[in-house]
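About this split. The held-out portion is used to measure sequence recovery: a designer receives only the structure tokens and must propose an amino acid at every position. Recovery is the fraction of positions where the proposal matches the reference. Here is one held-out target exactly as it appears in the evaluation file.
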């Protein structure tokens, strides 16, 4: 019966492109709050094969399920307590881990499931530490409303390659957040020790990034991006406003009124400011890249 239930679960993945694991949360909002499925369990066997490490992981249930996780050189591996990277050769029987894999990853209908995860967190039994993997809004509140980040000067911000990045580089990325204590507020707040920005991008955002890479310039040290191309790719309607030397950008009930040469613009009747003034170049309006944060906010 256990094998049948696992096969049914995997079949649902193939049909729906998403499912809940032992520790994953339910509900449409929670499902949209991350691109990854989490599987938690205990390592019962470790094998090495062709520069890969295969972990047999069993859930801590009365009727446990088993999954084989193949670790490659591309798999991100971290310790929950120290937030440091670990080597795949150091995994041992008895360790508890959280494995994260793309919820749209195609699955082979076999038991036990065989998966190559994008991220694995090994639990540190000596040093306290928690890890949150998910999407955050522009105020750094997780989309499932379970955690708010207060980023400090000593919070380590890195990309998947371990290179230092700025806070602005976290925008639009799924984040791996390492932290210890939280407040009792709703949502709980924490000052993370480390944040890793994952490179996962939707097809839509991949196209936006391609547009920006192929069409931008620097102005006073600020990257300027093509307003119409980017906004329309994200589903907005862009109308030129020659009377006010600018543009009106709308989607649903949201609207932006932009004037070239002025840092101030209106957003739903409130006033905001660009980092750099919008300009006209090659008959196109360019705005500072910080405007992208508003365009992609949930």
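Reference sequence for scoring:
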């Amino acid at each position: 019966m256990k094998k049948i239930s696992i096969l049914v679960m995997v079949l649902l993945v193939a049909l729906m492109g998403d499912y809940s694991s032992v520790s994953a949360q339910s509900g449409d909002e929670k499902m949209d709050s991350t691109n990854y499925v989490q599987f938690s369990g205990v390592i019962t066997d470790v094998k090495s094969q062709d520069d890969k490490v295969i972990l047999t992981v069993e859930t801590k249930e009365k009727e446990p399920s088993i999954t084989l996780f193949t670790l490659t050189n591309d798999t991100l591996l971290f310790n929950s307590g120290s937030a440091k990277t670990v080597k795949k050769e150091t995994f041992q029987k008895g360790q508890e881990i959280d494995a994260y894999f793309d919820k749209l990853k195609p699955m082979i209908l076999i038991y036990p499931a065989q998966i190559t995860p994008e991220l694995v967190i090994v639990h540190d039994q000596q040093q306290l530490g928690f890890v949150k993997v998910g999407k955050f809004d522009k105020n750094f509140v997780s989309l499932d409303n379970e955690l708010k980040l207060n980023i400090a000067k000593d919070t380590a911000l890195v990309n998947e390659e371990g290179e230092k990045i700025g806070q602005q580089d976290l925008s639009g990325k799924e984040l791996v957040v390492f932290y210890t204590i939280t407040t009792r507020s709703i949502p709980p707040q924490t000052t993370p020790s480390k944040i890793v920005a994952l490179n996962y991008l939707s097809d839509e955002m991949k196209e936006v990034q391609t547009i920006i890479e192929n069409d931008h310039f620097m102005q006073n040290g600020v990257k300027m991006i093509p307003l119409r191309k980017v906004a329309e790719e994200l589903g907005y309607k862009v109308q030129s406003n020659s009377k006010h030397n600018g543009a009106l950008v709308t989607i649903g009930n949201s609207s932006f009124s932009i004037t070239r040469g002025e840092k101030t613009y209106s957003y739903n009747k409130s006033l905001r400011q660009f980092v750099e003034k919008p300009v006209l170049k090659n008959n196109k309006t360019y705005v500072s890249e910080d405007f992208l944060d508003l365009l992609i906010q949930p």
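Annotator remark: The CA atoms of residues 8 and 16 lie 12 Å apart.
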